[in-house]
Amino acid sequence: LVDVLYDRVVGSFKQKMDRLAEVVAPVIKQVYEEQGDKYLNILIPITDGKRVYNISCNLKEAYESNSKSVVTSFEKAIVLHTIDEAWKEHLREMDDLRQSVQNASYEQKDPLLIYKLESFNLFKTMLNNLNRKAITVLMRGQIPVREPEQVKQAAPEQKTDFSKYKEGRHDSAAETPNRVAPDGRPAQKAAPVQVDKKPGRNDLCYCGSGQKYKNCHGKNA
User: Fold this and answer.
1) 6: buried, middle or exposed (CB in 10 Å: 19+, 13-18, 0-12)?
2) What is the pLDDT of residue 99?
3) How far is CA 12 from the centre of its chain?
4) Which of 26, 151, 193, 216 has the CA that lies 20 to 30 A from 126?
5) Which parts of 83-160 are beta strand (E)?
6) Rounded to two decimals, what is the model's pTM?
7) How far is CA 157 from CA 41, 54, 146, 211, in A?
8) H or E element: which one contains 47?
9) What is the arithmetic mean of pLDDT over 124-146?
10) First to last CA, the chain
11) CB of 100 within 8 A of CB of 72?
12) How many CA atoms lie within 13 Å of 18's alpha carbon, on the beta-carbon side?
């Protein structure tokens, strides 16, 4: 049943993309024949009913491919846009996880183990949300503009500079060692959090009583 449903969905998606190309083809043809010397790249607005995505495509390539390249550009732009948003949200969630997992040491749990498990679950959730959102937009895509007069020149594509993003909220403090305190003295860096390894049940208790951990502070653990 899953294979049959998958084949039906893929077939429906291909028909939808062919229909999208048929809708935009007359506009591309008219703009290229009448204003081909004016435009190099143009913007094609495509909406999923909630947001409008301005898809940049080469006018000559779109004309020669009978608007098939518009569909390809649409698919590529939506996937990249969804990945970009999902990854930035994932970085924020990982930062929150790193802050909250430090409390695990107070519960005599291994923070590193919890961080590994939770971060893996967050990554799986991100991939599922990414696929779901991308497919939703692609399946709902429609072209609201059909008049050649509404076609716009596309500006150069701007790429996201991920080097501006920090790994955590406090990384900026580590990059400014010359920061000065209000009284004029150099501010000291915050010491990293040290997580002690949980002792074994038969190890000596960390309190120095000489008893085994299981008979001392670990009795109720």
Assistant:
1) exposed
2) 82
3) 27
4) 193
5) 152-153
6) 0.59
7) 10, 11, 23, 68
8) strand 41-47
9) 88
10) 49
11) no
12) 6
